[in-house]
Write a structure and sequence with these properties.
Layout lengths: L4 E4 L6 H10 L4 E4 L2 H5 L4 E3 L5 H11 L1 H4 L7 E4 L1 H4 L2 E4 L4 E2 L4 E7 L10 E9 L13 E7 L1 E3 L5 E6 L3 E8 L2 E4 L7 H13 L2
Parallel strand pairs: 1-2, 1-3, 3-4, 4-13, 5-7
Antiparallel strand pairs: 5-6, 7-10, 8-9, 8-11, 11-12, 12-13
Length: 199
């Protein structure tokens, strides 16, 4: 049986939890870092945990960095995976995939606002998008991150953490979420279900 989703093995990510979350929605997901498998997938997930530099090094070593910008099927970047879609990350001054315009910067810690930002936060939609269908502004999602993009072209939703940060971004067939939908309860499951329905 062919896979409904290919999860890119970017190293360090909680790949099993994503597979289980998709499985609960009736989707079969496989993990791969093989460019041909990714290119042929109906849908692609790019997760990520750890540093931008290490993740991009793994993608380049496998040749995946050359495949992703040319994909025409739906792709969803999650957490660090979303950050890699941007042009650059301040984490190690790392060049990203350049699919989304802009850069990712380190969050600034303050009293009552530690870095990393870890826990539940509300998300406010900036515009309508099929990925957010049925998800109300003010819905809570689970975040774990020390870097974030500032709102700009392609921002679909924001969260507030010492100012607005990108929570959901997109362009054409590419989407990214800063939070972890697989750890975000009913709202996260709805977002993943919406991703599975993207044309």
């Amino acid at each position: 049986m062919s896979a409904d989703v290919v999860i890119i093995d970017s190293g360090g990510a909680n790949l099993a939890s994503l597979q289980f979350a998709l499985g609960r929605l009736g989707a079969r997901a496989v993990v791969s870092a093989e460019p041909a498998t990714i290119a042929a997938a109906p849908r692609v997930l790019l997760p990520g945990v750890g540093s931008a530099g290490d993740a991009m090094h793994r993608l380049r070593a496998a040749g995946v960095d050359r495949v992703l910008p040319g994909l025409r099927q739906p792709l969803l970047g999650i957490c660090l995976g979303m950050q890699l879609l941007f042009e650059r990350s301040a984490e190690g001054d790392t060049a990203g995939l350049g699919i989304l315009p802009g850069s990712v910067d380190r969050l600034v810690a303050a009293p009552g606002r530690p870095v990393p930002h870890m826990g539940w936060n509300t998300v406010e939609a900036s515009c309508a998008d099929p990925l957010l269908e049925g998800i109300q502004s003010g819905e809570h999602f689970y975040f774990v991150h020390s870097y974030a993009a500032r709102p700009g072209a392609g921002t679909l939703a924001t969260a507030d953490y010492g100012g607005p940060v990108v929570a959901v971004a997109g362009r054409d067939n590419f989407r990214g979420v800063q939070f972890h939908p697989e750890r975000s309860g009913v709202a996260g499951a709805r977002l993943l279900a919406n991703f599975l329905r993207l044309p």
